[in-house]
Design goal:
The chain is mainly alpha-helical. Helices cover 56% and strands 3% of the residues. The protein has helices at 3-23, 32-39, 43-46, 50-58, 70-81, 92-95, 117-125, 130-142, 149-156; strands at residues 86-87, 146-147.
Length: 157
C-alpha cells in the first residue's frame, strides 16, 4: 500500500469516527439523527439528511478531483455507521470471534466465531453500493450494534 493510500485509509477512519461521535454517539445533540439514517432504505433517501452530506463533505467527496463514486460511498457509510449504537475498541473481526485470520491453523482450536467462514467470504465478495451497505449493516447486527467505528469505516471504504 502506498504512503498516500495509507494516509487516506487512516484519515477515513478518523474522520468517520469523529463524525459518528458528533452525530450518532451518546452525546450527540440530536438523538433522532441515528434513527432517521437507519430508516433510510437507500442512498437517495439518505442524501436528504444533512448529516450524511456532512460526512461526505468531510471525506472530500465533493472536492475537485474526487472520485465520482465517493459521494455515494460516503452516504452509504453514514447509513452503516448509524447502525452502531456503542463504540468498541476491538477490531470488527475480533469482536465477531476471529482470533486469527479465517482459515488459519490456530483457528481450528478456537471456539466457533459468530461470523462463520461462509458469511465472511460473502462479505469479502460483495459489490459496492447497496449490497455493501446491507452486508455491513448485518455485520453490525451480529456485533450487537457495538463496533470500532474507525476500523469499520476503514473496512467499508
Amino acid at each position: 500500500m502506498s504512503e498516500s493510500a495509507k494516509q487516506e485509509h487512516f484519515s477515513v477512519g478518523a474522520i468517520a469516527a469523529a463524525w459518528w461521535r458528533y452525530t450518532c454517539g451518546s452525546d450527540a445533540p440530536d438523538s433522532s439523527t441515528r434513527a432517521r439514517l437507519r430508516r433510510c432504505r437507500n442512498n437517495v433517501e439518505a442524501a436528504t439528511e444533512p448529516v450524511a452530506l456532512l460526512l461526505a463533505r468531510r471525506l472530500g467527496a465533493f472536492a475537485p478531483g474526487a472520485h465520482p463514486n465517493d459521494a455515494e460511498r460516503a452516504i452509504g457509510l453514514a447509513r452503516v455507521l448509524a447502525c452502531v449504537r456503542m463504540e468498541a475498541s476491538e477490531a470488527p473481526l475480533r469482536a465477531l470471534g476471529w482470533k486469527n485470520f479465517p482459515g488459519g491453523r490456530a483457528e481450528a482450536d478456537a471456539k466457533r466465531p459468530r461470523l462463520n467462514e461462509t458469511r465472511f467470504r460473502r462479505l469479502l465478495s460483495v459489490s459496492r453500493g447497496e449490497e455493501q451497505v446491507v452486508a455491513f449493516r448485518r455485520l453490525i447486527a451480529l456485533m450487537e450494534e457495538t463496533a470500532n467505528v474507525s476500523a469499520l469505516a476503514n473496512d467499508f471504504w
